[in-house]
Amino acid sequence: MKTVRVAVVGAGVVGFSTAICIAEALPICSVTLLAEKFSPDTTSDVAAGMVLAEVFPDIPLERQRRWFKNGFDHLLDIAQSEHAPEAGVMLSSGCQIFKEVPAEMKPFWSDTVIGFRNMTDRELKRFPNHKFGQAFTTLKCECSTYLPWLEKRFRKAGGRVEQRKVNSLHELSNNFDIIVNCTGVGSRTLVGDNQVHPIRGQVLKMEAPWLKHFIRDGDGMSYIYPGIHSVTVGGTRQVGDSRLQADEGDSKSILERCSKLEPSLRRAKVLHEPVGLRPGRRSPRVEKELVELKGRQVPVVHNYGHGGWGVSFAWGTALDALGLVRQCLHEMPLQAKL
Fold it and tell me: Does the annotation list 183 as a binding residue?
């Protein structure tokens, strides 16, 4: 059988995870990852990288649970290995607090994270505006370290990397047999998906080495995530906003809100103020279709639209995308394989 040429478009955490899964599992495939921007210039680089999740309305809960567990286990294996410092993956303990008791007191991922429990009254005392909280240990992924590590792993598996802007799938139809689309917000123009839209996220990277435990407000608007080199303090969720410049008003609001949760932040130094555009979508798109490109039917696998949960679900949806690529191989006409 001849080599099957696979293009993966997109170099964020979803793109590289998907490219690795295909390259490592399917030696028959020659995998090329194409993207206009690579780390440190991707949305993933701005991500806080905490492994948490919210429910997607159109995806069966069992599938979301599998995505989350596969992603968690993958990152936990790295965090507990010698590769942890090079990959930028670490265990992180802390709490999620709520102003009102949530309808769902035990989220679907509570059995996957480590040591999940409700907070005691004594623990909640420091948050007078919050009535309920959950304490647990999860994982944090420093994407500016993790992405170059993934690229190295992908190249080791025989993958090729090409820096170029893909304006249309037609550009790829002559050189590739299967196309995998992991372009996030870029899918709006690349495949004409109007359901995907930018959600602007601005954070502060702060120097506060005394902070060791994360705090996340259950509304998702305020969070403090200590990392390896700095503390990520956020954030914003501005739907339809594509500005990539830091906004002074947003920085002030973030600091004000988060200092109420952690007063010592008032003494911390702001190192920089990154901005990224999350690929907002009602639910991620992980499916395949046949697209007519230059007169022939080309299988296209989609894996995008993870919103703010790309790091949490990347490996899980990458494994699903791998399964879809396997299906494409089985369905390819015999002459294409000879």
Answer: yes
Range of the domain at 32: 4-89+140-195+281-331
32 annotated ligand binder: no
CATH number at residue 45: 3.40.50.720
Please give the model's pTM, rounded to 2 decimal places. Answer: 0.95
What is the number of structural domains in the chain? 1
DSSP state of 195: T
Residue 43, marked binder: yes
Tens of pLDDT, residue by residue over 36-48, are: 999 888 999 998 9
pLDDT of residue 332: 85
| 225 appears as a binding residue in the annotation | no
Kindly give the interhelix angle for 61-79 and 310-331, rounded to the nearest 10 degrees: 110
Q: Is residue 214 part of a domain?
A: no
Domain presence at residue 47? yes
The pairing of beta strand 238-239 with beta strand 197-207: antiparallel
CA 293 from chain center: how many Å?
29
Is 278 known to sit in a ligand binding site?
yes
How long is the chain? Answer: 338
